[in-house]
Amino acid sequence: MNTLLIGATGGIGQALARHLAGRASRLWLSGRNGQILAGLARDLSALAVPAELGHELEVQALAEEVGPLDLLLYAAGAVQKAGVREQNLADLERLTTANLTGLALLLKYARFNPQARVAVLGVYPDLVSVPGLSAYVATKLGAEGLVNVARKEFRREGVRFCLVRLPAVATDLWAPLGGAPKTALHPEVAAVRILEGVLAEPMADMLEIR
Question: What average pLDDT does the structure give for the chain?
Fold first, then answer.
């Protein structure tokens, strides 16, 4: 199973990488933190493929290097708390790149084997539609819309898509918001539940984790 995990250096991404290491015949890891990425790839006997998700040529080169995929997991993400009137362009662009643009570029250039699977980590809209998270909500729901359309466009190629809706997970993503809620899932628990659903036969179009 030729597998590419985007966002491998985040809390959920690292947990997913550890659980994929024994299942994927070839595991490619990509993430923002180069030091963590190199160490994780070394420890798991995986292949590190750093790429800037906002640079089209880098994403194209990544897709060419990993070759035809059996599984693409998009776990990249970014959040920033700011009101609509306070949101600055730099943060808006950073969130858009991580939550939406990177996914769009990967789907543009990725090649897939027959019956390949694509899983994208999303959110429960009602849980995140709160003051200060307008950019996060807009970009995450934009990714959800992209998945819904891509599912139809890629059907003729035999590629299946799963949108994974997650509750709060205790990762560093919550740092800008003052920390994760006490009820947040541990990343290892989230990773196990994600893979149980994504690797199930048949795979559902949407996986809702509570």
Answer: 94
| The pLDDT of residue 179 is above 80 | no
Please give the order of strands across the beta sheet that includes 206-208: 47-48, 26-30, 2-6, 69-74, 112-123, 160-166, 206-208
CB-count exposure of residue 81 (10 Å: 0-12, 13-18, 19+) = middle
What is the rounded average pLDDT of the residues 70-88? 94
Tokens of residue 138, six digits: 């807009």
Residue 174 backbone phi and psi in degrees, to 5: -85, -10
pLDDT-derived band at 173, boundaries 50, 70, 90: confident
Kindly list the structural domains of the chain, giving each domain's residue range(s) and its CATH number in brackets, ordered by start.
2-208 (3.40.50.720)
Furthest CA-CA distance within the chain: 48
